[in-house]
Write a structure and sequence with these properties.
Length: 166
């Protein structure tokens, strides 16, 4: 099995909690779950599969800690690595639901990484998401504020879809 690293940015703890749940589902050791506020982009080097998570703030903005990290990591050559994205949002922010996931996608796509993990957003009600790229939601989108009852099922479905691709 390939070495998996989970990297997240979290301001309120919601995305952090999701990252740790995903780690259990993917059999990833706690030592391989990283808060990007306390690691450098060079930490990507130790992994073949990168699972990145962010919350969405403001009008579709990344969680604050991602900005410096993505500036450094976005210039890396990640050819040969696989990446999956997840994000937490609030569907009442209807014009930017989980848009930060799309920002991560756009920043990392040019690095040569193989992107996996597109997932549907059925069950949520919003008008726009920057995570919708070329007709596909480019990662797992979660709303722990309004629909926490959907989270575990969505996570299990997503993990069952991405595991064979890792």
């Amino acid at each position: 099995m390939k070495k998996i690293g989970i990297f997240y940015g979290s301001s309120t703890g919601t995305t952090e909690a999701v990252a740790h749940k995903l780690a259990k589902m993917l059999d990833v050791a706690e030592a391989d779950v990283h808060d990007i506020a306390s690691v450098a982009p060079s930490a990507f080097a130790g992994y073949e599969v990168l699972v990145l998570g962010t919350s969405t703030w403001g009008v579709g903005d990344l969680q604050d800690d991602w900005y410096d990290f993505v500036d450094g990591a976005g210039v890396l050559d990640l050819s040969g690595k696989t990446m999956a994205l997840f994000g937490c949002g609030d569907e009442t922010m209807s014009d930017s639901f989980c848009s930060a996931v799309g920002k991560l996608y756009e920043r990392f796509k040019p690095t040569g990484v193989k992107m996996i993990g597109a997932f549907n957003a059925d069950g949520y009600s919003f008008s726009h998401s920057g995570a919708l790229i070329d007709g596909v939601y480019v990662g797992l989108l979660l709303d722990e504020v309004n629909h926490p009852e959907l989270t575990d099922l969505r996570m299990r479905q997503w993990v069952s879809e991405i595991k064979p691709l890792m």
